Each structure stands twice: as structure tokens, then as C-alpha cells.
Amino acid sequence: MILAGIYARTIFEVAQEQKFKKEDRDRLEAEMDAILEALEKSKELKVALFSPATSRKEKVAIIEALSSKMDVSDLLTRFLVLLGRKERFNLLPEIRQVIREFCLDLEGGVIGLLESAERLEPGEAEEVEKVLSKKLEKHVMLRTAVDPTLVAGMRVTVKGITYDATLRWHLQELKDQLVHGVEMAKLD
């Protein structure tokens, strides 16, 4: 993630130097999303761009053709070509995540972590984001992680505050109440 952060900061700083406004950043993010979606939909494209068998020169040609076909901005095209030349195109999903975080921070939003015992169904993380955004009165973006030690449920941490709805937490609460209840009975 460190290397992805360096690349993300580079394109983000260049965009700021070029006086990108919110709509320009939104377009850059949308273009990156479109490129990533094209990679997900095309196994051949993914293999061509990630394979060590494809030369750097071939990767650059593929990237330029893809960018032209998708009408990608000049800045993003140059950035993608740089990734191709440096054999770092595989970092694009992580770079996209870091850029999303930079933009969110610039807009006053916050980033959190949602841990669940099992992989979440599509849309579940977004639903939690909506609830937290409303509660905190600012946009919340959640990274997700699976932690099987949670047994069931989920735990969300935002700005150092943890919201715990895991089975482990509930069991601990019951245990504490039982122990506390026993201690209270001894006092009577």
C-alpha cells in the first residue's frame, strides 16, 4: 500500500497543481473506475497488462489504445502509461482507493474500517456507510475486512471510536452482566 500511496499522491498533486476542481476530480475518479471495470470485464486485457510475458512497450501501446478508446483524460493517460513503463499497473486498484481517500479528506469526510465475520453481501457496506454518515453528519467511507475471529456480526471503527455489533461483544456483555449480577448478589 505504501508504493500505491506514493503513486496516488503523485497524480493527486499534479491534479492540484493543474487547479483541478471537484468536477475535474470526479471525472478523474470516474475514468479510473471505468478503466478498472474494463480490466475486471476483460480477462485478456488483465492478462496482457499484468503478465510478465507482455513487454513494457506492448503494455504502453495497450494502455494508450485503451485510453483513446475510452476517451480518458490526458493526465490519466500519462499516469497509466507511467504505471505501464514502471511495471506497476497492478497497483491501480490500490492507487484508486488511496485517491478516493484523498478526495474524501479534501471534502471533509472520514474513513473507517468495517470488519465482519464473513464477506459482506453487495450493498451491505454502503448501507452501513449511509447510517454512519447520517449519524456523524459527514460522509463516511468504509474499508472492509473479514475477521473470522469475530464469529458473527460486524465491528466498525471511525475516528478512533468503535461500534461493536459482533457476537463476541454480545457474549462478553452477557458474561459481564452475569459476573456483575453475581457480585451484586454477594453484596446483598
Give structural notes.
This protein has 188 residues and is an alpha+beta fold. It folds into 2 domains: 2-104, N-terminal domain of the delta subunit of the F1F0-ATP synthase (Peroxidase, domain 1), CATH 1.10.520.20; 109-187, no CATH class. Helix content is 63%, strand content 14%. The chain has helices at 2-17, 22-41, 43-50, 56-69, 74-85, 92-106, 124-136, 167-187, and strands at 110-116, 140-146, 153-158, 161-166. Strands 2-1-3-4 form a 4-stranded mixed β-sheet. Strand 3 and strand 4 (161-166) form a beta hairpin.
Jot down its keywords.
alpha+beta; 188 residues; four-stranded mixed β-sheet; Peroxidase, domain 1
Concise summary:
The protein has 188 residues and is an alpha+beta fold. The chain has helices at 2-17, 22-41, 43-50, 56-69, 74-85, 92-106, 124-136, 167-187; strands spanning 110-116, 140-146, 153-158, 161-166. It folds into two domains: 2-104, N-terminal domain of the delta subunit of the F1F0-ATP synthase (Peroxidase, domain 1, Orthogonal Bundle); 109-187, no CATH class.
- Mean of residue pLDDT values: 87
Helix content: 55-70%
Q: Under the CATH scheme, which class of the largest domain?
A: Mainly Alpha
- Return the string of H and E elements: HHHHHHEHEEEH
The number of domains is 2
Strand content: 5-15%
Q: How is the secondary structure organized here?
A:
Layout: H1 2-17, H2 22-41, H3 43-50, H4 56-69, H5 74-85, H6 92-106, E1 110-116, H7 124-136, E2 140-146, E3 153-158, E4 161-166, H8 167-187
Parallel strand pairs: 1-2
Antiparallel strand pairs: 1-3, 3-4
Helix pairs in contact: 1-6, 2-6, 4-5
